[in-house]
């Protein structure tokens, strides 16, 4: 597992990558806040935001296929929440507006994370006097998330190598066992990390 799978293209050389991290963070926050707050009747605004994001993606030289795959990976979470809005009066329109706003915000964050190294984003947040505890949590999350995914993949390969007669029932059973074992190992790792940090004077 690559250690930079979250921001794999954040160190490319492009006009967008060369912009100061603070400018990109401020721009991304401005786009997200405006996308959420501007009434939907201003259709030209949302068209302009979408065009701006597409131009930014083109200038960043990030492979379009990667951006589309990353967006499609996150989109089900958005649609899963938005489906509940279909139960409301005029629910279809509300759902479409929610899906559009959420997609624009997701695409903005995908571009930000893949044009700015995560360490620089943390530096910007630190300069804005973000609480130190929150920064520590974000740094640890970034540091160990790929370790967790790598652990999941190794456990899955080990399970598959010991399963000679796969079936749907057995697959679901093994998936449940894998999730349980992963939760236990993650909790144990978190406790070991915390004990190690406390032993080194962290408070």
Helix/strand layout:
Blueprint (H helix, E strand, L loop, with lengths): L20 H17 L5 H18 L3 H19 L8 H23 L4 H10 L4 H30 L6 H32 L4
Helix pairs in contact: 1-4, 2-4, 3-4, 5-6, 6-7
Sequence of secondary-structure elements: HHHHHHH
| Cα end-to-end separation | 31 Å
Number of helices: 7
Whole-number mean pLDDT:
83
The chain-level structural class is mainly alpha
Major β-sheet profile: none
Overall number of structural domains: 2
Explained architecture:
The protein is mostly helical and 203 residues long. The chain has helices at residues 21-37, 43-60, 64-82, 91-113, 118-127, 132-161, 168-199. It has 2 domains: 21-126, no CATH class; 131-199, no CATH class. It is built from 7 helices and no strands. α5 (118-127) runs antiparallel to α6 (132-161). The model has no long low-confidence stretch (mean pLDDT 83).
